[in-house]
Structure formats: C-alpha cells, structure tokens
Amino acid sequence: MARALALAARGVGRTSPNPPVGAVVVNRGRIVGTGYHKRAGGPHAEVLALHQAGPHARGGTLYVTLEPCCHLDKRTPPCVPSIIASGITQVVVATRDPNPKVRGRGLAALRRAKLQVALGIGAAEAERLIEPHRTLVTTGRPFVTLKVAATLDGKIATARGESRWITGPAARKMVHRLRAGADAIVTGIGTVLMDDPSLTVRIGAVHPHVPLRIVLDPSLRIPLRAKVLTGRKASTLIVTTTAGPASKRAALEKMGAEVLVLPAQEGRIQWKVLLSKLGQRGIASLLIEGGAEVNASVLRAGVVDRVLFFLAPRLLGGRAAIGVIGGMSPARLSDALRVKKLTLSRVGPDILVEGRLH
Fold first, then answer.
1. How far is Cα 339 from Cα 272, in angstroms, rounded to an integer?
2. Which among 34, 183, 271, 354 is least surrounded, fewest beta carbons within 10 Å?
C-alpha cells in the first residue's frame, strides 16, 4: 500500500475533478503491475496496473488507495468490471470514495463477485491525498488553503509595502510545491499592484502542471502590463464586479485573460459565490496568496479549510507595518477564530505552522 500511496501522490494537482489514486498488483509476493491516475479523462490507476500485470494478475492482490469506481457518469469506463475480469482474488483498499455516486457501491460490487475485500490500510494518508476531492464532491466548492509568509510578530510587509523576501529560500521552494499541487492560485489586486507576482510554478527548469491564476479585482484596476497577464505559461481569470469598466474587460479578454463578473456585496466579491463557480469548473484545490485584506475577507467568509503560516525569525514591529489579517478586529476575544490540529515544523531557518479551521 505504501507503494500505491507514493504513486497516487504523483497525480496531486493534475487529476481534478478526479482524485489522485495509485494502484499496485502483487502476485506471489512480487509486484507485477503499477499505475496511477495522471489526468482527468485518462485511464484510472487500477486499469493501468492491471494492464501492466496482464495474465500475472490472475490469482493476485490489487492494492488501491481509493475505492474502485462503479458508475458510468464519467469519461472512462468503471474499474470494478475490469478488476473482476482480471482474475484478481483480493482487493485491499485504503479508503472509501466520498463521491455519492460511489460511496461503498464499488466495494459491495467486488464482494458480490466473491472477491476478498479489505479496507483501511493506509487510510490516514489516503484521506489526506483526497481531501480536495472530498470537499468538492460533498460541498460543491474547492478545498481552500490560506498561505501566509510573516515575521514572528505577524507582519507581512513594511509600512512602505516591502515584503521580498520575508522567508528564506527553503520556504519559497515549498510554496512552489504547494502551487504545483493546487488547481488554482488566488491573489488580490492589492498584491498585484504592490508586488506584480507571476503566480507560476518554478521548480526546476520545467514543471508539467500549470495552475489557474485568479486575481480578485472588483473595479478592474489591474495594469495591462501585469505579469499575470503577459506571461503565457498559465491561464488567468480576473474576477470582478459590475464596477469594472466594460472597455477594460474587453481589453483584458483581448490579451487572453478570462473575465468573470460576479455580484458585489459592499463593493467586494463574495467568496461563497466565487467558490461555487470554481467548483462548477472542477477546481478542487485553491491556494490563496493574498494580502491582509484578502486574508481578512476569506477568513470572515468562513471558507478557509487549512492555514499555512511560514514565520521568519525576524521582528519588524511598528504600527504602520502591515499585519497578516486586515479589516476590523472583533470586539471580543471569544470571537477569534480557533485553529485546530496544529503542527509545527522547520523549513530552513523558518517555522511552518499548519492548522485547520474546519
């Protein structure tokens, strides 16, 4: 199962709206077939592993990180009939598929065919791998991660807006790995105007996965020379409101960007509406790399699932320095958001604090 889980991890960020899945076929103590789901619309992990195993699958055991599918409402055939036809006698599954179209039906079909079925080995790691998929199929929205780079005293920039680079090279490299595992990256117009980020993945010379870049820009202040518009390596979605001039929308679309107009609430884009739209597009994982006001708005909307705070061993201080979360502070301490399941780790000289809000 460890081998299957490692294979599944290769598909993270590339399979949405499908989950990443890995599979291994073993016969007489020897691995005879392996596979992982590489992209939506492509062969599933079980099919690839069985194809590689060929006749050696007969009488063997299939290890798979997620319950095999059994429904027809998708681009590829269901896996359960292929498993049964292969001659496999035992299937070891890490975790059930939370998709209502599956959710136990695949396991039941295998048992009806008299195959031995075991469930739960490697479940914790398998659940982490499919967390975005679970969120998408059960809520209709992406799994949301809020990433922050700050000093120990909670500052993300100086009073003049200088923020490069608060954290060290190891932390920045990890952020690119996070981007590589996300379907889309969100930032706000304030960050674009201040830092002009490209929001691309830069790990080595070439990386096969290119997440969608999303800029929240209610009144379309984005410069046409911004890096998120001029680079052709990634698609860009500008989310705006009716306050954005039609002429600017046309200019952005002419440059190749997509413009999505959403209803405003007090001049701001509504997160729940946006996330619903992204979920309809099959986006399962969203990484937010915004400034203080974007951080405040998404936390206030209650849609952040995971927080990642990279804290540098620096103290900036000063009332005018920019803090992690903008907006208005709650009047009572009891209204503060509680972060659960905290973990701490070192990333070079920096500290990574990870926690959950749901």
1. 21
2. 354
Cα separation, 145 vs 357, whole angstroms: 10
DSSP string, 180-195: HT-SEEEEEHHHHHHH
pLDDT at 206 (0 to 100): 47
Whole-angstrom Cα distance, residue 121 to residue 93? 7
Q: Which two tokens stand for residue 3?
A: 């081998």
Tens of pLDDT, residue by residue over 266-311, are 888 999 999 999 999 999 999 999 999 999 999 999 999 999 999 9
Cα-flanking dihedrals φ and ψ of residue 64, to 5°? -140, 140
Residues with catalytic function: 46
Of 191, 175, 162, the C-alpha closest to 291 is: 191
Q: Where are the beta strands (DSSP E) in the chain?
A: 22-27, 30-36, 61-66, 90-95, 116-119, 143-151, 155-157, 184-188, 212-216, 236-240, 258-261, 264-265, 268-269, 285-288, 306-312, 322-323, 340-347, 350-356
